[in-house]
Amino acid sequence: MTAEDPTSMTGPDGEAYNIRAASYFVLQAEHRCTACAKVSRVAALAVPPGHESTEGELELDEDDADSPGLDPQAFRDWLFSPAQWQTMPGPAMISSTRALAPEVAQTLRTLAPFFRQNPAQSGEWSNFCEHCERPIWDGALYPTPGQAFCPNDAAAAAHVSTQRIDAPFAAFFGMCWTDSYRNKWPLFARLGYACSEAE
Q1: Which residues pair with 148 in a beta bridge?
Q2: Could you give the residue ranges of the DSSP H alpha helices within the chain?
Q3: Pairing with 111, which of 42, 45, 66, 195 sits 20 to 30 Å away (CA)?
Q4: Is 192 left (phi over 0), alpha (psi -120 to 50) or beta?
C-alpha cells in the first residue's frame, strides 16, 4: 500500500476510511431468514494479512495491575490525534460497514446484489433476504460459532465460498474480526491463513 494521508481516503459521505488493502475477499454462505424461514445467500468482506487500518489497538502498560490506565492528558492526546495507518499482520473480516470505495461497491453489486446499503440503517451495508427482502442482522451472521461467518470447524468452513478480488480495497467498518478471535480461525484457514496462539 502507498503511504497516503488518511484524511484523503474518504467515503462517498466524507467519512474517512479506516481499513485498506491491496486485495480483498468476497465471502458467501447460506443463512435461514428469521422473517420468512427460507434459506438465503449472505455475503461478507475480508482482507488478507498486511492490510492497513487506522483502528490499531491502544497499547497500555500492563506491568502494574493497579494502574488506573492513561492519565487524562494522554487519553485526550490519543483520542484527538490524527489517524495513522498501521500495517496489520493477520487477516480480518469486517462488519457494520458504513462506507465502501466505489469500485468495491460496484464489485458487490455484481457478485452479491443481496448485500447492499440499507437506507433504514443510515446506509450501512447489509444482507437482504433473497426471498422476502428483509434485512438480515449482522449479529445473526458473525459473532457466534455455528453462524454463517463463524464456522465451527474446517468442514463447516468448506461451505463458505471465497472469491479473492485482486484490486484495491477501502472501507469504513464498525466491527473488525481479526485472528485474535479464535472462533474465526476456521474461516481464516478457509482463506489460506493458518492461525495459532502468539508466542
Answers
A1: none
A2: 72-80, 102-111, 154-157, 185-190
A3: 195
A4: left
Rounded Cα distance between 1 and 186, Å, is 27
**Spans in the chain with pLDDT lower than 70:** 1-15, 56-70, 76-82, 198-199
Three-class SS state of 102: helix
> In 57-96, which positions are buried (b, 16+ CB within 10 angstroms) versus exposed (e)?
eeeeeeeeeeeeeeeeeeeeeeeeeebebeebebbbbbbb
CA–CA dist 1, 168 (Å, integer): 9
The pLDDT tens digits for 47-105 are 999 999 997 654 444 454 555 566 787 776 656 666 789 999 999 999 999 999 999 99
DSSP string, 55-90: -PPPP---S-TT---S-HHHHHHHHHSPP--EE-SS
Rounded Cα distance between 71 and 75, Å, is 6
- Mapped onto helix, strand or coil, the DSSP state of residue 2 is coil
Q: What's the CA angle centered on 10, arms 98 and 5, to 5 degrees?
A: 135
Query: Given CA atoms 43, 47, 53, 55 in this order, what sign does their dihedral have?
Result: positive
Cβ atoms of residues 30 and 42 within 8 Å: yes
pTM for the full model?
Answer: 0.83
Amino acid sitting at position 118: N
